[in-house]
Amino acid sequence: MVLTALAAVVLVAAAFNVKVVSASDADTAASEGQLDPAAYAAERFDDIAAQVEDEAVPLADLLTQLEGGADEAEFGNTSGASSAYAFPVTFTAVAGTATPPILPVTVEGVPAETTVQVQIGPALNGTALRDVTGEISFNEFTNQLEYQNVSTELNDLVRTDVLEGFDAAAAAGRTIEVTGAFLRVNPQLVSVVPVSIEVIG
């Protein structure tokens, strides 16, 4: 009898500690902490672009330094120990014939065996803009998908805000000025995501 009475008391006490959560409250709780990649990218884009422009290194100089054994960390940032470095660069180049999503360019001082291209869309690839400042950390995000989606949204902003008025076909054979970021996955390929691009001659 004593055990039965104690069990009854425990059950009553437990009942008073049960919190009933409505479906709408559950949905709200589930969404808390989840990040909107588009909003995050829109909030950060101008600051990222400004930092890239402020810290950009002339491309030919950067490649010479890296070829000579310079520490990549001196000039760029990476999202992790096993990831490629992203570098902010600037250069004046002669534009080739565009084959979207890329515009091949010739940059004085860059070895002939190194291919330099500017990503012009409609699809832009890579995580260069996300990683180049060193200020966006995976720890800010719920999962890898959110982290990757921020890269996609930043690239989309380049397409709509930077490349909207750029006529790649008309630029062929002309001199352009580009500032942007690239991931050094392959030392023989520089594929730049621009934060500014302009025909100057």
From TrEMBL:
Protein name from the UniProt record: DUF2291 domain-containing protein
Signal peptide (from-to): 1-23
Matching InterPro entries: TM0957-like_sf, UCP033535_lipo
Coiled coil feature spans: none
Keyword NAD: no
Domain of life: Bacteria
Pfam families xrefs: DUF2291
Keywords, alphabetical: Signal
